[in-house]
Amino acid sequence: MARSVLVTGGNRGIGLAIARAMAEDGDNVTVTHRSGEPPAGLKGVICEITDGESVKNAVAQVEADQGPIEVLVANAGVTRDTLLMRMSDEDWDAVVDTNLGGTFRCVRAVSKSMIKARKGRIVLVGSVVGLMGSPGQVNYAATKSGLVGMARSITREIGGRGITANVVAPGFIDTDMTAALPEKVRNEYLSRIPAGRFGNVDEIASTVKFLASEQAAYISGAVIPVDGGIGMGH
User: Fold this and answer.
1) What integer pLDDT is reported at residue 92 of this predicted model?
2) Distance between CA atoms of 84 and 88, rounded to whole angstroms?
3) Is 75 annotated as ligand-binding?
4) Strand 163-170 relative to strand 28-33, pairing
5) 23 — pLDDT class (breaks 50, 70, 90)
6) Is 121 labelled as part of a ligand binding site?
7) φ, ψ (nearest 5 deg) of residue 199
8) Which of 19, 35, 74, 181, by CA, is between 20 and 30 Å from 28?
9) Which residues are in the Ketoreductase domain (predicted)?
């Protein structure tokens, strides 16, 4: 039976791969995007996750179209990388308000219908950087680390209602962003990954699909690394 699924930031990269994979499995999927048109073959809703009213309205539109949201994949995020001493308040605030605040607003907006239905899957897309840390990413790493505490608090609060909340922590994944890195930087990253390669977006999507499935009903508050081994021990 098709489920009502919302994927934030599902218009490109990892989010798009997740949305397409779930749609191909027969789910009724809508992606959030900030402007323009949704990706071909997918439904979209304009949403600015830093604005609580925008999130509330987007969720209402999705639920009117495809029913109460049963699966939320919170993927939308931004980076403002720079060294700590050069990081401005704006650099910090923009990343925290989007990656952490935006995820909170989306979870809050869908939780009411999940609690009422006594079922739901919440998957937060974190990062290995949130577990290991990374120079030049104090803001980004702090937000991705914060998602772990968020998922675990959600689990303790509403886990008894048939709702799970988990974090997928991707490592270095082949996307437009990593493709644009200088070859020297790419090689330096590769040298640290035990698997000897970058991951691909489909490997993230398949993990998210599993966590959103009935087979994962007894997994909650977990962090699932998909990183080729780079984050071991963290």
Assistant:
1) 98
2) 9
3) yes
4) unpaired
5) very high
6) no
7) -80, 175
8) 35
9) 3-176
Q: Is 10 annotated as a binding residue?
A: yes
pLDDT tens per residue, range 179-220 = 777 888 889 889 999 999 999 999 999 999 999 999 999 999
pLDDT, tens digit (0-9, with 9 covering 90-100), for 104-146 = 999 999 999 999 999 999 999 999 999 999 999 999 999 999 9
Clarify whether 140 is annotated catalytic: yes
Is 136 annotated to bind ligand?
no
Q: What is the pTM of this model?
A: 0.96
Q: Is the separation of the CB atoms in 178 and 188 below 8 Å?
A: no
Domains of the chain: 4-172+201-225 (3.40.50.720)
* Annotated binding-site residue? 102: no
Q: Among residues 140, 148, 225, 227, which one is catalytic?
A: 140
> Is a pLDDT exceeding 80 seen at residue 176?
no
